[in-house]
Input
Amino acid sequence: MLILPRPPLSLHHLTMSAIITFIICSLLLQSEETRILDPRQVPFVPPPPATQVQPSPIAEPLPVAVPPTPTKQARFTNGMSMPQRHNHVVLSAPERGAKLLSLSTERRDAAGNIDLDSDGNPTTVPLAQGMNVFRGQVLGKFDDRELHSILKINQTQLEVAKSERDKEIEREYAAHGVQVEYANLLAMLDGNKRHAGTFTQMEIRRGELALAQAHSYLKLQTYNIDEIASRKVTAQESEVDRTKVQIERQQLVSQIDGIIVKINAAEGEWCREGQEVLEIMRLDTLWVQVMASVKEYEISDLFGKQAVVQLALPNGRTETFQGVVSFCNPKVDGSDRFEVLVEVQNRRTGNFWLLQPGRSDVEVVIAL
Output
């Protein structure tokens, strides 16, 4: 099919088309404005709710995960339990030896109170191994009859020395002699004033010499009383005190609260000087000794650290005790090891202590 080209529009046609287009657009705009201005046709649109501006939260830094530090421990399997040095006492015979008169003591209850009989006198019981004793308790006595006799003699001599020190007769006699010689000299001088030449110059000088001798004698008696007699009293008091100390040493007195673990003598037996008679031990607090290598530990690694002590008992039982490292010996032995002492609080099972001194299979774990 043959398509003929469209003839070009004339200026008149273009003008008419533009006028028609303008009129149509004006009508359409007027109709739209009329519809919008009618309030019945305007729908109610509620205003949007006021939105509160929330402050942007500050982002907190996330915690950094720190891996747990593993607890380091020092483990020893060859610990040995032992009493503390100040909790282990051995009572011995006194110097020059003595006869053991008694091994008995007053009966006491668990709190240490003395049991009295109906007359108010302490009741006594013989000593036995395993008996609980208290600090200051008298446990026995050696023969002290000779020492008591010496004490009486010393006390008598002390009284004599005190009487000599307090004696004023010699001092008064010397003072009276001074007064007499002074009066004689004054009489001679006064006689010469009244009658010249009554007493010669030689007689007056003899009077002055007698007065000087009387003064010297008074000073001597004063020195004897105040110095020599007082020193005698002091020396005699020392003798009395020394004898009392010797008598006290004839007694067996416990220095700690503990248990009698050994009795090495019997009543009536003669004990030589220094012979061990009683052994007393305190068991509520013990030491556990271990040996640490200097190649593995320093003293600062162990001293003051908490420790756990484990004790194997029969029938597969295990007991655990809490302790603390109380001593590290700075001296190293030939195996490059040093002594470590763990102080442990012991416990009872019935009337007996769980941890016994001398155990060499105690396990010790020290938290480093």
In short: The mean pLDDT is 82.
